[in-house]
Write a structure and sequence with these properties.
mainly alpha, elongated, 0% strand, 6 helices, Post-transcriptional_regulator, Post-transcriptional regulator
Amino acid sequence: MDKGEQALYDKVEMVLDSKVSEFELYHFTTITKQDLWEFAKVKFWKKKRLDELPLHQIVADLYAISPSTYMSVTQIQQFKSENWFSELKKEDLEQLLNPR
């Protein structure tokens, strides 16, 4: 995190604390402020520069993160990133695709 992003993170840290508390009410106890920040960067601000966004927009985006949205997007990203057949050898894959 560069200095500008860190300064912005520090400004909205209370909002992130509030969201973490909300998630804990729904028994999502492993989600951190950093997790929510990274999620918002990917979900809301992917093609935008953080230093150009108004503070009220950043706060609104953070408050808009619901536990169900967070979990859905996170699970989809996990499915996309996992290579289900990474541990199989070429012969094993060929055997799966061309059973005899």
